[in-house]
From TrEMBL:
Quaternary state and interactors: Homotetramer, a dimer of dimers. One homotetramer interacts with 1 SecA dimer.
Principal location: cytoplasm
Function (record text): One of the proteins required for the normal export of preproteins out of the cell cytoplasm. It is a molecular chaperone that binds to a subset of precursor proteins, maintaining them in a translocation-competent state. It also specifically binds to its receptor SecA.
Annotated segments matching region Disordered: 1-21
Stored HAMAP family: SecB
Taxonomic placement: Bacteria, Pseudomonadati, Pseudomonadota, Gammaproteobacteria, Oceanospirillales
Organism listed in the record: Halomonas stenophila
Bias (Low complexity) ranges: 1-19
A Gene Ontology term for the protein's cellular component: cytoplasm
Name of this protein: Protein-export protein SecB
InterPro entries: SecB (IPR003708), SecB-like_sf (IPR035958)
């Protein structure tokens, strides 16, 4: 019986210890388009020649705290397609896809990682679909953007920051 009491006491001790830790909360509150733009500056002439696209893609993420445990994360995707031989712009599509995330019980580097990599991974499929739809409505063939590894982008960003700090420390 003594063993039974120790086991239940251990279980209660674990439960009490778990209550002391802050509970991790992560909830997507809303996904929305913050800004959207499409330009086809050389239309209709661009439709009168063979479509030989050269795609330039720019991707950027930002985040900010907007309330108690509430963060806005924004992915800005700019796709500029030019004629590969002439260099004229066929179209320019740009979106700022945003999301509101309620995040609690996460702090420091783990919070930064969540906002810089995990949340953009949630938002990117929405930005991809919107760009594809926008380009199609502009009269062009679909522009299916490849998936993006935000984990790798975040790791590269952190590596650059560490290098810059190292260079500043040696100066």
């Amino acid at each position: 019986m003594a063993e039974d009491n120790n086991q239940s006491g251990g279980a209660n001790g674990q439960a009490a210890g778990q209550q002391d830790k802050p509970q991790v909360q992560f909830a997507l509150q809303r996904i929305y388009v913050k800004d959207l733009s499409f330009e086809a500056p050389n239309s209709p002439a661009v439709f009168q020649q063979p479509f030989k696209p050269k795609v330039g893609l720019d991707l950027n993420t930002t985040h900010q705290k907007v309330g108690e445990e509430l963060y806005e994360v924004v992915i800005k995707v700019t796709a500029q397609v030019t004629h590969s031989e002439e260099g004229t712009t066929s179209f320019l599509a740009e979106i700022e896809q945003a999301g509101l995330f309620r995040i609690g019980g996460i702090e420091g580097a783990q919070l930064d990682h969540t906002l810089g990599a995990f949340c953009p991974n949630v938002l990117f499929p929405y930005a991809r679909e919107c760009i594809d739809n926008l380009v199609n409505r502009g009269g062009f063939p679909p522009l299916m953007l490849a998936p993006v590894n935000f984990e790798a982008i975040y790791a590269q960003k952190k590596q650059r920051e560490a290098q810059q700090q190292g260079e500043q420390a040696t100066q």
